[in-house]
Amino acid sequence: MNRNVWRENWLRSINELTSIELQGKTWFSNENPHYSFVEFMNCYFDDLFLRDNYKTVLNQGLITKQEFEIIKDWHLKLDNYTAPNNDDYNHKLILEDLNWISIVKLGEKAKNNLSTIITYEERILLNEKINIA
């Protein structure tokens, strides 16, 4: 697994999952299937191999222990999140869910802390404003 490609995808995924603004703008559009709660979660947990609470990627040196310590609480809450009525496709209810909002806010704090210890180039990816027309 290419470390640079993995980290780019990881940082972009964190960026998407920590922006209520982006979620609100994109989750209701059917133009790009990536922009949905289900896809954001699948990209983060499945595409990045994070279902094992970061064990694999830590062992492979894709992230540091310090980076993991910064995001682990957010990651666990995200992993344990259940959409209202168990409906992962009801974006309106998810975006209004106080549990989801608190997870996104916790993620924003983790993202801000993470941005203080990564490279400048990675910080750009993590904080990139995603503009969807």
Walk me through what this model shows.
There is one protein chain. This protein has 133 residues and is mainly α. It has one domain. The chain is 64% helix and 0% strand. It has helices at residues 3-17, 20-26, 37-47, 55-59, 65-79, 91-96, 98-115, 120-127.
Entry summary:
By secondary structure, the chain is mostly helical. It has helices at residues 3-17, 20-26, 37-47, 55-59, 65-79, 91-96, 98-115, 120-127. It has one domain (3-127).
Key terms:
single chain; 133 residues; globular
**Structural class from helices and strands?**
mainly alpha
Number of strands: 0
Segments where pLDDT lies below 50 for 5+ residues? Answer: none
Summarize the biggest pleated sheet: none
Mean pLDDT: 94
Q: What is the count of structural domains?
A: 1
What is the overall silhouette? globular
Helix-strand sequence: HHHHHHHH
Hey, roughly how much beta strand do the residues contain? under 5%
Number of helices: 8
Radius of gyration, whole Å: 14 Å
- Bin the helical content: 55-70%
Q: Give the termini separation.
A: 32 Å
